[in-house]
Amino acid sequence: MSEARIRILLIDDHTLLREGLVRLLEADPGVAVVGDCASVAEAKRILEGTEIDLILLDFDLGEETGEAMLKHLQDRGNPVRVLMLTAGMVPAATLQAIQNGVAGVVLKQSGTRHLLEAIHRVAKGETWWTSETLRTAVGTRAAQEPVREAARELTARQRLVLRGILDGLTNKEIAAQLEASETSVKASIQELFTKAGVRTRGQLVRITLERFSATWLK
Length: 218
Hints:
Blueprint: E1 6-11, H1 15-26, E2 31-37, H2 40-49, E3 54-58, E4 60-61, E5 64-65, H3 67-76, E6 81-86, H4 91-99, E7 104-107, H5 112-123, H6 131-144, H7 156-166, H8 171-178, H9 182-196, H10 201-216
Parallel strand pairs: 1-2, 1-3, 3-6, 6-7
Antiparallel strand pairs: 4-5
């Protein structure tokens, strides 16, 4: 990723909204919109010749959905970060987006500061999910199928740290919330990684929702 600015590809089929977003994002000195388009086909062409750090992807693209873009990225093994931008998504679509590697969801009715904070956090490798969004997605998963395998029980501290991660908090913010040191929070996160069999926070979020929601989020 560029050290100077986050290179963004914006995909949204509403021209006026897209043009407004480009102006809004370009006002942030840490962001550069290096491409914007209305369809997955156009986005594919841009990706072929442009270095992208983050894709800001509208879920509803008229005759297609953002899932087509996510599938293309997965098929190509493209590690670019994706932040979904939407006016609203049904729980099943949110769950599918998580499984497809989306790093977070921002509602179009959110404020500018909220959107920019999400962009900067996701570009740094963090995730951007609200507790309400995750609870709804977890409820959908629980209704779809039983838990596929038992998970090791978490300690009270590990549960609190995990919820902080799901809320998109940094280690420092989690430490302040728990009145603990950042060192102890980092230790708890490593313990969570070990129990989940993952290496990153994004992977931890996905595996928690996909496999361990019934035991770790109860």
